[in-house]
Amino acid sequence: MLTRTLMLAVLLSGLCWTQGAWAQGSPTGPAVVATIKPLQFIAQAILDGEGSVSALIEGSDSPHHFNLSPNDRLRIEQADVLLWIDPKFEVYLAALFADIAASESSLMVTASAISGLTLHRYPDGELDPHLWLSQGNALLIAQALTEQLASIYPDKAPYFRAGLDQFRSGIDKQAQAFQRRFSNQHVADYLVYHDAYRYFEHDYGLSHSASLVADPDIQPGMREVLELRETISASSPACILLEPDASPALVNTMVQNDAVKRITIDLLGNSLESSANAYRQLIDHVATGFLSCLNI
Questions:
Q1: Beta bridge partners of 82
Q2: Is residue 124 located within the same domain as residue 227?
Q3: Most CB contacts within 10 A, which of 37, 155, 203, 266?
């Protein structure tokens, strides 16, 4: 009995020390919790060390199928601002975030609801949620976040607005460089694994000839496979843009021409470290994939 009591005391004292050490090491300033890394990157450009920014969904986790850990729930509870796309993208967080919005315990920035955003929809009317791939949209998200942060920490507002100005300047220069690369070029036909590039394509006058899957979580039926194989064969695409979780078996079944170049693009930037420049690095990664695919 004495041994069990002693062990419990040691565990409790260790827990108290850990919590105390965490509190002492926590940064001053606002805590922003984003759902996905691209939104984390945008927020990081504004805060740049003046507070904390983290993403809930990382690595191989899917925004569509995501379960919160106890640590995730703690981060959400302690956040000053929650930043997400919308309920139809981060489906498993929709109910929790709706409760938080109703209680007004944290400020909520819903990216798809920001005024002025360019929004694209699929043929069935559903929103294409990959809106961070438009640099103009990213800037509007950054502006909305900056105003929320300034309202919570008015003494730090000049710092946040300076971060926004730097973010805007960097995006403008990057966009101008890409416009020069993609303009006045004869662009070959290309395929995409998943129709997720509309925002980037719209910005730079690009258009894919076909996508292999309508929903990356749902495998196409045999009739769809056969029809798409005919379409691909007729278009003679130069390349296909894949995603890290693309099914190699499905790609091999659909694209039987070995001459079709395969380029993988990580739309969520899971391989990138969060920094003030990470969003531009993500868009540079996307652009490089297109340029390599199309031999521009």
A1: 33, 108
A2: no
A3: 37
How far is Cα 213 from Cα 226, in angstroms, rounded to an integer? Answer: 13
Say if residues 175 and 135 touch (Cβ distance below 8 Å).
Answer: yes
CB neighbourhood size of 18 (10 A): 10
Q: Kindly tell me if the per-residue pLDDT of 210 is higher than 50.
A: yes
For residue 23, pLDDT over 60 is answered with: no
Tokens 């691209």 label which residue?
Answer: 38
Show which of 123, 149, 178 is a domain's final residue: 178
* Structural domain of 188: 184-294
Of 131, 154, 178, which one is at a domain's C-terminal end?
178
Q: What is the mean pLDDT of residues 138-150?
A: 97
**Has residue 205 been placed in a domain?**
yes
Residue 262 has pLDDT above 60, yes or no: yes
33 and 169 in one domain? yes
Residue with tokens 């796309």: 85
CATH number at residue 250: 3.40.50.1980
Q: Are 206 and 262 in contact (CB under 8 A)?
A: no
The pTM assigned to this predicted structure is 0.87
The helix, strand and coil proportions of the chain, stated in percent and rounded to the nearest 5, come to: 50, 15, 35
How much is the pLDDT for 7?
A: 37
Q: Are 170 and 219 in contact (CB under 8 A)?
A: no
7, with CB counted inside 10 A (0-12, 13-18, 19+), is: exposed
Token pair recorded at residue 159: 């710092």
